[in-house]
């Protein structure tokens, strides 16, 4: 298989591999790329964040920093805090992205992350309230892609979860006499993470063939993509399918089954890393 055929007829080049149930990078159709995660103090690059993580999925590299600030709750949600996710795809991560305001893909990814937070109930906004109608936490979750090689959503959800697991919030009380907030930096507590959502993405080739964890090249050649988000109880939190080939019920069920298996692998990896950085 020459490099020339990959350049001139990339789809035909891929089909020759797919017929043999493998991919040009040597993976089987259902095989994920090597996944690594670094959490918190391993990342000297975001010392200002209250929680941070870096996730690599093959070459795709995503960093997430969480900054916690205090604010007054909204009038119609007096007992809730805020979670504000933002996904950035800077021009340095791939030639396809341009400098300037967020493009369509970055906006869609930010909305996807917001939906995952809401649908999975990973953090309940009531838990972020300090004093009803007076004070609440705002969590700014900045997810920045450093190197884009496909499957941004899986890496982003993983990085977000790992960074949130790393957040320690100081104890905040309101002085009844002055009405002012008092922050005790010596007493910090971890965020209450109620659910652990994990995303698993698939590319659809020729309307029927499913491959997991697609690279950027595979995404470009695919006739569709689908991302399944599940939690630790195997509950379906989200199905994200931005157009493309329709999926049969059986194919969708196959995706969900594989996503539940992938969840266990990711959760095991995150728990192992957190255990390794937790003081004995």
UniProtKB/TrEMBL annotation:
<dbReference type="InterPro" id="IPR020568">
    <property type="entry name" value="Ribosomal_Su5_D2-typ_SF"/>
</dbReference>
<keyword id="KW-0271">Exosome</keyword>
<comment type="similarity">
    <text>Belongs to the RNase PH family.</text>
</comment>
<keyword id="KW-0007">Acetylation</keyword>
<dbReference type="GO" id="GO:0071028">
    <property type="term" value="P:nuclear mRNA surveillance"/>
</dbReference>
<dbReference type="InterPro" id="IPR001247">
    <property type="entry name" value="ExoRNase_PH_dom1"/>
</dbReference>
<dbReference type="GO" id="GO:0000176">
    <property type="term" value="C:nuclear exosome (RNase complex)"/>
</dbReference>
<feature type="domain" description="Exoribonuclease phosphorolytic">
    <location>
        <begin position="31"/>
        <end position="170"/>
    </location>
</feature>
<dbReference type="GO" id="GO:0005730">
    <property type="term" value="C:nucleolus"/>
</dbReference>
<dbReference type="InterPro" id="IPR050590">
    <property type="entry name" value="Exosome_comp_Rrp42_subfam"/>
</dbReference>
<dbReference type="GO" id="GO:0000467">
    <property type="term" value="P:exonucleolytic trimming to generate mature 3'-end of 5.8S rRNA from tricistronic rRNA transcript (SSU-rRNA, 5.8S rRNA, LSU-rRNA)"/>
</dbReference>
<dbReference type="GO" id="GO:0034473">
    <property type="term" value="P:U1 snRNA 3'-end processing"/>
</dbReference>
<dbReference type="InterPro" id="IPR036345">
    <property type="entry name" value="ExoRNase_PH_dom2_sf"/>
</dbReference>
<feature type="domain" description="Exoribonuclease phosphorolytic">
    <location>
        <begin position="197"/>
        <end position="260"/>
    </location>
</feature>
<dbReference type="GO" id="GO:0016075">
    <property type="term" value="P:rRNA catabolic process"/>
</dbReference>
<dbReference type="GO" id="GO:0071038">
    <property type="term" value="P:TRAMP-dependent tRNA surveillance pathway"/>
</dbReference>
<dbReference type="Pfam" id="PF01138">
    <property type="entry name" value="RNase_PH"/>
</dbReference>
<dbReference type="GO" id="GO:0035925">
    <property type="term" value="F:mRNA 3'-UTR AU-rich region binding"/>
</dbReference>
<dbReference type="GO" id="GO:0034475">
    <property type="term" value="P:U4 snRNA 3'-end processing"/>
</dbReference>
<keyword id="KW-0539">Nucleus</keyword>
<dbReference type="GO" id="GO:0000177">
    <property type="term" value="C:cytoplasmic exosome (RNase complex)"/>
</dbReference>
<dbReference type="GO" id="GO:0034476">
    <property type="term" value="P:U5 snRNA 3'-end processing"/>
</dbReference>
<protein>
    <recommendedName>
        <fullName>Exosome complex component RRP43</fullName>
    </recommendedName>
</protein>
<keyword id="KW-0698">rRNA processing</keyword>
<dbReference type="InterPro" id="IPR027408">
    <property type="entry name" value="PNPase/RNase_PH_dom_sf"/>
</dbReference>
<keyword id="KW-0963">Cytoplasm</keyword>
<dbReference type="InterPro" id="IPR015847">
    <property type="entry name" value="ExoRNase_PH_dom2"/>
</dbReference>
<dbReference type="Pfam" id="PF03725">
    <property type="entry name" value="RNase_PH_C"/>
</dbReference>
<keyword id="KW-0694">RNA-binding</keyword>
<dbReference type="GO" id="GO:0071035">
    <property type="term" value="P:nuclear polyadenylation-dependent rRNA catabolic process"/>
</dbReference>
<dbReference type="InterPro" id="IPR033196">
    <property type="entry name" value="Rrp43"/>
</dbReference>
């Amino acid at each position: 298989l020459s490099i020339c055929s990959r350049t001139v007829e990339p789809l035909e080049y891929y089909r020759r591999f797919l017929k043999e149930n493998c991919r040009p990078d040597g993976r089987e159709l259902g095989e994920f790329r090597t996944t690594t995660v670094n959490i918190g103090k391993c990342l000297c690059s975001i010392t200002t964040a209250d929680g941070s993580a870096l996730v690599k999925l093959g070459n795709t590299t995503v960093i997430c920093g969480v900054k916690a600030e205090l604010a007054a709750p909204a009038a119609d949600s007096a007992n809730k805090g805020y979670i504000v996710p933002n996904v950035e795809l800077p021009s340095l991560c791939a030639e396809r992205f341009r400098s300037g305001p967020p493009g369509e893909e970055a906006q869609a990814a930010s909305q996807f992350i917001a939906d995952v937070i809401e649908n999975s109930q990973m953090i309940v906004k009531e838990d972020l309230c300090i004093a009803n109608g007076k004070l609440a936490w705002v969590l700014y979750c900045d997810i920045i892609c450093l190197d884009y090689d496909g499957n941004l959503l899986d890496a982003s959800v993983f990085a977000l979860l790992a960074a949130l697991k790393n957040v320690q919030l100081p104890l905040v009380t309101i002085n009844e006499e002055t009405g002012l907030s008092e922050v005790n930096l010596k007493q910090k507590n971890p965020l209450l993470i109620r659910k652990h959502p994990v995303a698993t993405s698939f590319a659809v080739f020729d309307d029927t063939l499913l491959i997991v964890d697609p690279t950027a090249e595979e995404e470009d050649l695919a006739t569709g993509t689908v991302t399944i988000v599940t939690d630790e109880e195997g509950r379906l939190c989200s199905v994200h399918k931005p157009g493309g080939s329709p999926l049969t019920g059986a194919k969708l069920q196959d995706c969900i089954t594989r996503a539940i298996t992938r969840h266990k692998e990711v959760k095991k990896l995150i728990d192992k890393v957190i255990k390794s950085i937790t003081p004995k």
